Amino acid sequence: MTREDAPRGSTRNPRRELVEKQILDQATRLFAEKGFASTTLQDIADATGLTRPALYHYVANKDELLSRLISESTETPAAVLHDINGRSDLRPTEKLRKMATAIALNQAETADRFKLIIRSEADLPEEISRTYQQSRRHVLKEFVLVVESGVKAGEFRPVDPRTAALGIIGMLNWVAWWHQSGDADADRSVATQLADMALRTVVQESGAPVVPEGPERAISMLRQDLDYLERILARDRSQA
């Protein structure tokens, strides 16, 4: 159901892409309502307004549909993160902002598909489940790498990269459960705000000197902590 699956020499076909999107949207709804095992291709054909023979022109079976849904929800974002991480013109802070925005926007725009995958995780066919788990590991790896590079560059606090990455991913994924998709401007606004929040969990305080990882960095962090403690003590004395 990708463009590569089209006959050789064919060009982009907007009508085909529209029908494929309708098929995926209806499959998502039916899988969520009836379960993957209980949904038939005839159900999907009826919901899309196609005959079953016409449906076979776009998809071979249910596994292919589910594989496509998972690919668009996990494999594609992982590839986007990898591309951002590989850019030499961006600092770690800029990379993390773009990566967080990309994931949040993907989850906001495809919330129903993401929730379906989460709910169906235990029942996924073995091969599809392996692909899904591998994509999740790739997403985690890219976030760990950017946090590690930010810590070493002195742009991020000395956090544990894996813990920070898991926390950021969890926050970004959660948008699928509370955000109502459908408004492109709202999707973008939510993604931008969540990216800002993700950055604030790891970035140095505004105005703090950027010091590379090492003894000087440790001393710098201790000074920040002492300054914070002094502010707290001064506030408590003023309120006494």
Q: Could you characterize the architecture of this molecule?
A:
The protein has helices at 14-34, 41-48, 52-55, 62-85, 92-109, 111-120, 126-153, 161-173, 175-178, 184-200, 215-239. It has 240 residues and is an all-alpha fold. The protein is built from 11 helices and no strands.
Q: Helix-strand pattern, N to C?
A: HHHHHHHHHHH
Q: How many strands, what sense, and barrel or not for the largest sheet?
A: none
- Secondary structural class: mainly alpha
- Please tally the β strands and state the result: 0
Which term fits the overall shape?
elongated
N→C terminal distance = 69 Å
How large is the count of helical segments?
Answer: 11
Domain HTH tetR-type: 17-77
Pfam family, one: TetR_N
Keywords: DNA-binding, Transcription, Transcription regulation
DNA-binding region: 40-59
